[in-house]
Queue: 2 jobs
Job 1
Amino acid sequence: MDFTLSPEALEFRESVRAVLREHFTPEVSERQHSSGTFNSPEINRALAAAGVLERAVPGLGKGDPIELWMLFNEMEKVSAPVDGISMALMIGGVVAHVGSQEQQDTVLAEILTGEVLVSLGYSEPETGSDVAAASTRAVRDGDEWVINGAKMWTTMGHVANWILLLTRTNPDVPKHKGLTMFLIPMDLPGITVEPVHTMGTERTNATFYDDVRVPDRYRIGEVDGGWKVMAVALAFERGVMGGTSMGVPLLHHFHRWAAEVRDDAGRRLLDDPLVREQMVRVAIDNEIASLMTQRCAYIAATGGLPGLEGSMVKVFSTDAYQKASKWFSRSAGPAGLLQFGESGAAGDGWVEYDARHSPVTTIYGGTGEINRNNIAERHLGLPKAR
Ligand SMILES: Cc1cc2nc3c(=O)[nH]c(=O)nc-3n(C[C@H](O)[C@H](O)[C@H](O)COP(=O)(O)OP(=O)(O)OC[C@H]3O[C@@H](n4cnc5c(N)ncnc54)[C@H](O)[C@@H]3O)c2cc1C
């Protein structure tokens, strides 16, 4: 692929930066960290108004392929709240690929206004990594389905308007073959949402479905064809929709702090050769992650499904982020334990935050082990893990 940025892509990047300059205020950042809800309605709306969102839905073909990567790269580089809009655009891409005309005219059109969010309901309390073993049941009743079960880790479930819900419709066939996907409104009677707070600040949720009646038109994909829809969603989730540039702001925050802080002998931390080497290594990792992400975005935006490439960049970038945050915490010493707002906190508190947040990123979007299995099986040709 060609990594050169076209004039249109550069213009697009400037539109994203302009929105962030105006709408990513200290108040938005503070709200993100105090609530754990990594979403900003102001930024989402402004991105829609600037014509950015429709260009960034994978498969819609409205923008230069590289723009998909640029949006999330620019947001993550300044630590803007990205989870809400990235999940919405990802599901927008799923609807564009496999949704009915009605779903494209309603859900996709709503997503593009920046006003509507969508959550993902795959994981369950008893089946996390083994997603295909989902047991939330959907039983047909005339033109409707009746859904019963529970989902775990439904991030954005408390603010989302829709949920992409994986259900079991046939328990008598091999597990991958008896699944059906629905895209349903979150305000249907019978849906409840309970908060789950994580050590990485992000709030996620447990969600419960008690006799939820769902018209068949909310089904997305074929009956018992949920695994195919899942493959599209997973291919977009990893590597395409952000989550791979988080080492960038960490490096900036640490660099600024290391240039100021001095030891008892008056030496700057920045002049310590070990610290310098680690910073260079982090910068190299950040660049590699960026190029790998561009490749995934390019594949997705030109009609492909970067399932394997997404696993590769997810593993690489989240491991690199975790390694960087460990290195910088260690170099910062006690100052690395101080939080936002505490005097003397390393990197204004970002070192402490990243140390809590980076391990969580190796779990969501599929754990590192599951993504490694994917690479082992699909790229290296090793035997199936299960
Ligand atoms: C903050 C957060 C947000 C999330 N958001 C969402 C969301 O919005 N929607 C959603 O559906 N899910 C979400 N998830 C779920 C996430 O994507 C993982 O799939 C899920 O957390 C893994 O399941 P589990 O936690 O039950 O761990 P388990 O599946 O029980 O795994 C436990 C450990 O065993 C390892 N393991 C499991 N199976 C294998 C195997 N076959 N080979 C090797 N090792 C294995 C795992 O890697 C892990 O280390 C989120 C998770 C977190 C932490």
Job 2
Amino acid sequence: MSNEYSIRSANIKPFMAMDVLARANQLETQGRDVIHLEVGQPDFATPAPVIAAGKQALDLNCTGYSNADGIYQLRQAISDYYASDYKLDIDPDRIFVTAGGSGALCLLAALLTDVGQGWILTDPGYPSNRNFVTAFSGDPQLVSVTAETQFQLSAEIVARNWRANTKVVLIASPSNPTGTRIGPEELEAIYQVIDNRGGYLVSDEIYQGLEYGPNTRSSALGIADDVFVVNSFSKYFGMTGWRLGWLVAPPKARETLMKMAQNLFICPSVPAQYAALAAFSRESRLEIEANRQKLARRKEFMLTALRQLGFRVHGNPEGAFYLYAELPEAFTDAAHYCSSLLESSYVALTPGDDFGGEQQKRFVRISYTQDYARLAEAIDRIQKFNS
Ligand SMILES: Cc1ncc(COP(=O)(O)O)c(C=O)c1O
């Protein structure tokens, strides 16, 4: 039987986290007090100066199209941010402002993928990335990673899994769903393996800044000029719904990317771009830093509490706002566990099934994006449910 629509669209899998969210919202409309630990966004408001700048942009009628790569002031501000926070000199012409990190990933999938070409991606990993590759008729090559390498790729793993059709390796640090990071030396070694084989490194750095361990400030942009880096205003800057991110590309990719950005998107949201200029102000940065410190404290609380309940959190989660936990012995199926917990105790978690293959079915992703009191209440409900 032929598909009504394209085969590539049929091959794209739904996002379970969104199904959990939909059911949780439905329970809420029925008057239930649901604790949302399933969503991948901070619970903090967008910094006040950003909101004020967004309102001003509307009052000043900054509502037309911009250049496909964004307004120059914002590209310059992002370049300044790399200089001040990462000691990196990035030409604004290498920066493309996009519709979230997702817009950047879409552009990269289009730029780097011919039919059947492979991207090495981690299992577990953020599901949309493999679906972007599928959408452009590429071959997502999921490679299983464990706590032994902090759920990250290593140079050895990349070399061992490289195939004749492999062209791109995507790493994400800090990672969704595990919150773990990749060390700068390992990343450089991975780059060497890829470079020797004529491939490309794509580094998804959208949780950059939301890091809690030592030596936090690093970017793959420090390795070489020919890596592709994806970033976003969504998470660290607290702007998920504004739909703004960016891509840093090698200078020689500029012309082709411009052509594609013009055709695929015309430009990113213009009021959002003017608002985002204020994200780098001192006031915004202070607000963001206070939020980061709150997340760091919540992470410690949740890690200890979950381990006391028999969840096994492997590896060293040092970033983003996720813990990826293996269920206590008594439970085997994460999808079933999450659904029962939600229906009976009104705590929403995301089953590991979203993030990879069979081995993820014993894991749940927990977002610590609720205040301390709600997290404590969630732990209490989980304890009662488990016993
Ligand atoms: C690893 C990773 N990359 C990219 C994205 C895309 O986010 P956005 O388009 O909001 O920047 C997400 C969102 O959760 C993510 O977790």
